[in-house]
Design a protein that fits this description.
This protein has 98 residues and is an all-beta fold. The protein contains no helices and 10 strands. The chain has strands spanning 9-13, 18-22, 27-32, 38-43, 49-53, 59-60, 65-66, 70-73, 78-83, 87-96. The strands form 3 sheets. A 6-stranded antiparallel sheet has the order 1-2-3-10-5-8, with no helix packed on it. β1 (9-13) and β2 (18-22) form a beta hairpin. The mean pLDDT is 87.
Length: 98
């Protein structure tokens, strides 16, 4: 038995202070630990749609909804990530925005 929550796919790094990875089809994590802003197009394992950044201050955990902190995954499963330095983005498959 393989639990998808423990799988890592679509690993990406800039070789220094930025990483991104999928947790199977459950979610996607991006961490920018560097001193510079991050601007990348990255491959996820998520279905196309709009997702909430669950780390954002407007994310409602109880209802899995956000007002403005949405990120779009395109038809190829790619996401355009623009992150300030020392910040992160977490997309969860069941936290899609309408």
């Amino acid at each position: 038995f393989t639990d998808p929550a423990f799988s890592v796919s679509n690993w990406w790094t800039n070789g220094s202070s930025q990483i991104a990875f999928a947790r199977g089809r459950l979610g996607y994590v991006v961490i920018n630990a560097g001193g510079e802003a991050m601007n990348e197009s990255l491959q996820t394992s998520l279905a196309p749609g709009k997702y909430c950044n669950i780390l954002a201050s407007d994310y409602d955990l109880k209802n899995k909804h956000c007002a403005t902190s949405t990120v779009a995954v395109d038809m190829q499963g790619r996401v355009k990530v623009v992150l300030p330095s020392r910040s992160a983005l977490v997309l969860e498959a069941d936290a899609q925005s309408p």
